Amino acid sequence: LPGQILDQWFESEPLKATLATDVVIGAMASPHTPGSGYVLLHHVMGELEGRRGAWGYVAGGMGALSQAIAHAAAAQGAHIFAEKEVCHVLLGRDGRAQGIVLQDGTEVKSKLVLSSASPQITFLELIPQEQLPKDFVQRIQQVDTRSPVTKINVAVDRLPSFLAAPNTRDGQPLPHHQCSIHLNCEGTHLLHQAFTEATHGHPSSRPMIELCIPSAVDPGLAPQGYHVVSLFTQYTPSVLAGGRPWDEQARNAYADTVFDCIEAYAPGFKASVIGRDILTPPDLERIFGLPGGNIFHGGMSLDQLYFTRPAPSYSGYRSPVPGLYLCGSGAHPGGGVMGAAGRNAARVALEDFRCL
């Protein structure tokens, strides 16, 4: 249990709870859920510029990372079709992947197909089911994709001023504005309570909030004097109690709860808000193709990792369809901005390509 590990190494409850947020980040789990400690390990593995376990901010926002990858690919001769929805994978008579078909009917032929879409979209929507083993299809259907995450993007006309560290008169960002700020995390019991509410279909009344202010380190993201605030919050169930939908009323009620919590730490925050965008689990699924709204394409539990991700015997990036490879978060080693799944899948695909 991660709670026991944290108790063994640390005495400060706020410090233990802060570390515990990475135990449950993106996971419908509690710090007291057996096996959830792996999620913490997953988020501190690797390094950034020689600093082990460190994270970094991408200048220009996460979209800048996608653009960098796109530019590198184009420089090597890749052709990129943006905003072209894929209808299905094109299969030959021998059942081998031969390219893709776009929604408008355009066929794009290729010897290999790599999909960074989720396993659910790749194998349950883009491939005819009769082309796949029944046990494989059943496994993909049974993957736990529950997500507790609601993302709220906020525009404000001034920096939040926290009671614990008030702003200076010049209104310039302070060191804590340039970090990840965790709220409602004074104790691991708060995280467990928030999780318990969601398991009963109710959004947390005191949700875990990870607050970042990207414009504090990247001023070009907002006009001078204004800022953008990113709120990564949980727990919100994908399906509300009684089957109620996540309509505008439910979205705004939860966002108001989150803003009331922030207001208690930083009075004046609500008055500074000039716009907000609320993305509940169903929104994340609809807009970004994340199954269940899960940012990892499937839970990072021990039964869905390593040799079982996305399914037993198919953790090596190859799929039951020859020439089709999975290279996204649903493949080994899972989610996170690390590129490991893509790199590994590319190496496997190149190895097969040389044998064609």
Automatic annotation (TrEMBL):
GO terms for cellular component: mitochondrial matrix. The keyword Isomerase does not apply. Pfam families: Amino_oxidase. Its main location: mitochondrion. GO terms for molecular function: oxidoreductase activity. InterPro entries: Amino_oxidase (IPR002937), FAD/NAD-bd_sf (IPR036188). SUPFAM superfamilies: FAD/NAD(P)-binding domain (SSF51905). Residues 38-170 form the Amine oxidase domain. It is found in: Mitochondrion matrix. Keywords: FAD, Flavoprotein. The keyword Flavoprotein applies. Belongs to the carotenoid/retinoid oxidoreductase family. Interacts with COX5B; this interaction may contribute to localize PYROXD2 to the inner face of the inner mitochondrial membrane. Probable oxidoreductase that may play a role as regulator of mitochondrial function. This is Pyridine nucleotide-disulfide oxidoreductase domain-containing protein 2. The lineage of its organism: Eukaryota, Metazoa, Chordata, Craniata, Vertebrata.
